Amino acid sequence: MAKKIDVTELILRDAHQSVMATRLGIEDMIPVCGDLDKAGFWSVECWGGATFDSCIRFLNEDPWERLRTFRKLMPNTRLQMLLRGQNLLGYRHYEDHVVDRFVEKAAENGIDVFRIFDALNDIRNLERAIAAVKRTGKHAQGAISYTVSPLHTIQGFVDTAKKMKERGCDSICIKDMAALLKPQPAYDLVKGIKDACGQDTRVQVHVHATTGVTMVSLMKAIEAGADGVDTAISALSLGPGHNPTESFVEMLEGTGYTADIDSELLLKIKKYFLGIRNNYKEYLSNITGVETEIFKSQIPGGMLSNMESQLKQQKADDRVDEVLEEVPRVRKDSGYPPLVTPSSQIVGTQAVFNVLMGKYKVLTGEFADLMLGYYGETIGPRDPEVIELAAKHAKKEPITCRPADLLKPEWDTLKAEALALPGCNGSDEDVLTVAMFPKVAPKFFTTRDKGPLNLGKESASKPAAPAVDTGKGPVRMEMSYNVKLNGNSHRVTVTPA
Question: Which of 155-169, 439-453, 466-480 is predicted least confidently?
Answer without folding.
Answer: 466-480
